[in-house]
Design goal:
Strand order of the largest sheet: 1-2-3-5-4
Strand content: 5-15%
Number of strands: 10
Largest sheet: 5 strands, antiparallel
Helix content: 55-70%
Structural class: alpha+beta
Amino acid sequence: MAERRLEDSIERLSTMVAAATVENRPDSTIEPQRHEDSGGRALEMLGRLAGEVHIARELEMHRTLGEGGMGIVRLATQKSLGRKVAVKTLRDEHKNPAAAVRMLTEAWVTGSLEHPNIVPIYDVALDAAGAPVIVLKRIEGTSWDDLMDDAAEQRRRFRVSDTLEWNLNVLMQVCSAAHFAHSRGIIHRDLKPANVMLGEFGECYVLDWGIAVSLSDDGSGRIPLAKDAGDLAGTPSFLAPEMLDGHGRRLSARTDVYLLGGILYQILTGDPPHQGDTFAELVTSVMTSRPSFPPDTPAELQRICARALDADPDARFETPEQLRLALTGYLSRRGATRLAAEAERRLERLRAELARPDARARRLTLYGLWSECAFGFREALAAWPGGAHDAARAGLARAAEAMVDYELSGNDARAAAALIADIDDVSTEVRARVGNALTAQEAEEARLARLKVEHDPRVGQATRGWLAIGMTLVWTLAPLIVAIRPSGWETHRRMMTVPLGFMVLMVLLSIGTGGAMLRSGFNRSIALSAIMMTVSMLASHGIAYLLGIPAKQTYVLHFFIWSLLGGMLAITLEWRFALPAVGYLIGTFIVAWRLDWVYWTMSATSAVLAGTVMWVWHPSGKKPCGPESPQASNF
């Protein structure tokens, strides 16, 4: 049944056109053979123009710009405005009413459509023979058909680096012009690359509105109505199936959508949508309308093109604007895909750098590549509204995870956590690793902070300074008093009261200052050293008593103990305590030599200790170098 209908259609169409001509020139426009009512009304209007002023007299004609089947276009000067214009007239052999109507119709259609992608018509006039003269904007350029596949010429003239994107942008401008025409009720019926001109500066103009028809009657009779179109018209290699019926009532805006889809097909394949060695093959291609694409054609463009070329008008895009938006979306997503692909290449370089043995020493290089990866993937996501670009999201997660491994291998969990803070697609396993490492790192940092406070000499510095200065001054002055006023109190029992009293006084002062001397390991070390000194002094008296050594001679041991204490402080806390350590060592030998000089020697060596304490721990002195401790205070 379908084959019978196809045979009937081919037979009917063969009677309407010269089949041999169509076979030889399937890319040329078939002109309607009848003009019916609209043609007659147009001729009447042409007759009225003959009685008006011949505006053509104000045109100074120059060289020929181009020639077509019926017309010729010349460069002219419009004297009234002093501007260069293009003037289209009929060739001498085509000066007949039918050709005049064709030219006038095109002028009236084009003149009613003021759009950036449609050539402006300045005037319609008559020449001396009464033939129409169309005055239009001067445009010098090249047919899109000649440039569509010429990448070298595109690059030379328009600095084009991506032929597909450039052609799609031109097609979107043609869609815009067609959509505007449809808003005025006009369909073109002959949209094809050959009817699009590209100017020297990239301007795009849709030409040849000669077989355009109107979907609504404006009462002027200037533009043929679609419902009156009974002849086959259009370009065979681009025809929509409904254009073969010969029933103008089936024509609609979706007919032009089909033609736009045919242009897209030629962009993608290099050929128009319909081809055939015979008229029957060409008509069969039109009626079945089953496009096929090269294997490397982007799938999304295949879907867009197939929908625009659907044999059923109701299955196509409703308007050229919908087709334009679909192409815009594709280009946006194509840009996103490019960005993601480039970011993927950066990610491979990042992985290679991370695998190098000296990766730890190449931190700046690694983070430079990471930044490039992340930027590319994020830009791809931004260019694809809704974040639908799975490859970009997955790539960003992989890049972040690679850097997380790098940071965790260097025990920097905080940096690893910062890398994945705003990336949703990182795996649960990686997030758990980072969380555990961060917890461990924070615990270690807290431990180190406590250790820092424990060994920070600034903690309790003021209290420690005042106490040490006070105690050493007492230790310096007390022996002088005893030396000046001897009391004969040198017995082991009485002399043991001195270290005991010193220990009690030190405890009371520590408690009285709020326990400042116990708030850090540094201060506790000093306090314990002092306690150790007093215990050693008490022990020396006990040992001397058991050995029967006189109490005063025990001072020799005390000097040696103080020397040892000073040396220990110099080694563990502050090198400047080596001064009193040496002083007490010298004092040991002096006292051993002249015991009667003990109190003077004790006062002198204690003065060295007092001076050293003021030098090291003076409360108003310069604090030790290094970062301020958050828990340091002067108390």
